[in-house]
Each structure stands twice: as structure tokens, then as C-alpha cells.
Write a structure and sequence with these properties.
By secondary structure, this protein is an alpha/beta fold. The chain contains seven helices and seven strands, in the order βαβαααββαβαβαβ. It has a seven-stranded mixed β-sheet with strand order 3-4-2-5-1-6-7, with helices on both faces. A hairpin with a 5-residue loop joins strand 3 and strand 4.
Length: 178
């Protein structure tokens, strides 16, 4: 059975994408079958973080039934599998968050873990994805606004019956007030 884990934060720029790549790589090196899914429909960055610019087929193509799942799944040279979202402005409003259910249905029982890179914030798109994930890992920076947004993100995850195995603190300088 596939474990679907959302990686979320209330704020952008806290290190969600970097964290999901590192977590995915660690699971891969531990012998787990893992796939990274970029469910950030507005500002996706997973593919570019992996050095893969302008993928010929994306999550958007799959949802519109233009491509099959194997045609939008790529393997990074590290061995990590991933599905990118489209980065073009033209694709921005061509799919809706509720349409993501289809990709979750197709990915079930194909991997040990599917790590889902989410949009920042607490909006409708995040809620839609959390309805189809089992667990949520929260990413937080050691500053008051990030912590406050993380507390709201915890409530959102719980409202969607997600287990919260932990919080990853990023960009710390190990200061006494952190």
C-alpha cells in the first residue's frame, strides 16, 4: 500500500521542495520505492530543483488525458522518480485542484511512498490534496510568522484526517531564540 505524504507550509520559501527531495533521496537510498509529485499547480519548482527544465509532459497533461502516467514520470540521475507540474503561465488555470484525485488513484499501490510537494499557504488547493494524503510533514523556519503559519497548517492537516509524523525546521542558525 502506498503511503501518500504531503509536505506543506503556511509560507513560501521555507524549503519545502528542498526538504522533499532530501527526504525522497533518503528513502530511495534505504531501498524504498519513492516518487516525488509536484502538486503545486501555481508555482511548481520540483523539476527545476532537480535540474530538469521544460519537461515535455507534466501532471497537467495527464489530468487532461493527453498523456499516460508513465509518460509524465521521470527518473533523476540520483534514481528518484518524479512527476513535474507545468511551469508555464498558459497552463496555470487549465486544471483545477480537485482534478488531482485522478493522479492519486493511479499512483496507489505503485510505490512505497509518494511525497507530495504542495503550494504554500492554506488555500483550497492544499485542502484538496490533503483529502487524498495519509500524512503531512510540515516545514517551518525559526521565525514567528513561519511558526504561526505552521500552527494553522497543523490544524488544516488534522481537519483532513492526516497524521503528522513531524515538523522539519529549516534555515536555522542555532540561535538561542530559535
Amino acid at each position: 500500500m502506498t503511503r501518500f505524504i504531503a509536505v506543506i507550509s503556511g509560507k513560501g520559501g521555507v524549503g519545502k521542495t528542498t526538504s522533499i527531495i532530501n527526504l525522497g533521496y533518503a528513502l530511495h537510498k534505504a531501498g524504498r520505492r519513492v516518487l516525488l509529485l509536484d502538486a503545486n499547480l501555481h508555482t511548481p519548482n520540483l523539476a527545476s530543483h532537480l535540474g530538469f527544465l521544460n519537461p515535455p509532459a507534466t501532471l497537467h497533461n495527464f489530468i487532461r488525458r493527453e498523456k499516460e502516467l508513465h509518460e509524465i514520470t521521470y527518473i533523476h540521475h540520483s534514481g528518484i522518480s518524479f512527476i513535474p507540474a507545468s511551469t508555464t503561465y498558459d497552463e496555470l488555470h487549465k486544471i483545477q485542484p480537485e482534478q488531482l484525485v485522478e493522479v492519486f488513484e493511479h499512483l496507489d499501490d505503485t510505490m512505497d511512498y509518494v511525497l507530495v510537494d504542495m503550494s504554500p499557504g492554506l488555500g483550497y488547493d492544499v485542502s484538496q490534496v490533503l483529502q487524498h494524503t495519509d500524512e503531512t510533514i510540515l516545514i517551518c523556519n525559526p521565525n514567528l510568522s513561519s511558526v504561526l503559519d505552521t500552527l494553522k497548517s497543523i490544524e488544516l492537516a488534522r481537519d483532513n484526517d492526516n497524521i503528522i509524523p513531524g515538523v522539519i525546521l529549516t534555515m536555522t542558525e542555532r540561535g538561542k531564540h530559535e
